[in-house]
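Render this sequence as a predicted structure.
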Amino acid sequence: MSNFAVRLLTALVGIPIILGILYVAPPIGWFALCAAAMLIATWEFLSMTHHDDPMGRWLGMVLSLGVFSLFVATGFGAVHGTWLASGLAALAPIALLGSLARPATIPTALPRISAMLMAPLYLSLPMAALALVRTYGTSIQGGGLCLLTMMFAWMGDTGGYFAGKGIGGPKLYPAVSPNKTWSGAVGGLLGSVLGSVIAHFTFLPALSLGQGILLALAAGAFGQVGDLCESILKRSAGVKDSGAILPGHGGILDRIDALLFCGLAMFAALQSGWLEGFVQRARL
């Protein structure tokens, strides 16, 4: 099978599962899915720098899960924001002590510590923000907002793929991603906009068409930046994919690289009150 056919088959299997968790399972199922995706992505991310240090990867995952949990608990009002700030402040001492306790890792201590500190900021906080998107509006609307966020990322990726293949043209950022083109970037934005139009006329009518398009352009652009950011990380580590858990797609991090940034854009729009009518309602 071609790579595209494998990617499509994987999507056909995964999409019903995600929709079931969003609309059928209890809301806590979405939080568990976001946490699981974050933990797998963290393992893949730390494997680039801790490939011979499983203990370091496990420590990084514990730190990431702690930050994720604190952010979610803060979003629900279960703990004060100072706990989240304290948890973030404790990251550096814990990572440093972890390396200090294992002198055999001294030659590579700096990149390991840096990666361990970056993982919670790069992966935990955005995925926790995406989890909290589920709490805005009614339960159906919250699920729709999460679905729309994923559409911004993945329809943008699909639009960019077909536009880049079909039109080609000047390269977007060849030093980081030699296959991406400006036509692909425009096609990606159009794919994200199409997602917002579909959402407005189907599963999320409460989102006005104008606001949806503006949000799609912003989130789509951020998503493409997220894609490029992961590309430079993989290029620096000398790997093609972050993992191989998803046939045709690579690793979980390869699938959520754009979603991390799209989720932050959606959460910021909701948290700021810019998306009128979607008020946060605490629920698990």
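Summary. DSSP finds nine helices and two strands in the chain. The longest strand covers residues 177-181.
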